[in-house]
Amino acid sequence: MAILGYARVSTAEQNLKSQVDILTRERCDRIYTDTASGSTTNRPGLNAILTDAQEGDTIVVVSLDRFGRTVVHLLTQIEELAARKVGFRSMRESIDTRSAAGKLTLQLFAALSEFERARIRERTLAGLESARAAGRKGGRPSKINSKLQARAQKMVDAKISKEEIARALQISKATLYRMLQSAARSPE
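RESULT FIELD:
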């Protein structure tokens, strides 16, 4: 039953020492560190602690924001630890998943996070509907136009392979097939 500490600073100018000192006072057996923005997924220290943590171990952080990029990411990580019977403790927020109160706090965070995801989804759908009503459509502009269709059809008529046509027109084979099917369906 090891106590594993994790410390992270966002930039090289920041200092890990204060977090490491606090984790040392908490009697962490090992301390893993990263110097990386919370938004980056390349965090070798975090990956190592998640790999090394065994059933019965506890991961300790000075603050929740040091462990997860977002609330959703944080909760996902903690749920994965719980499934492996690894405890989690955040000192600043006084959260300890080994206690009933800590579990309740995390469940509240999860409920609030789910509520926020639902609100974001609602706002996104409302925005898309509004854009659609205004005549805008999402996505990338289509590469297909009548001039490109005509060139492709001439090449097909000249018995050039679909692969060569796609390469020459700088489109994928899937786009070429879609374009040819669309042209075959539409009346001339």
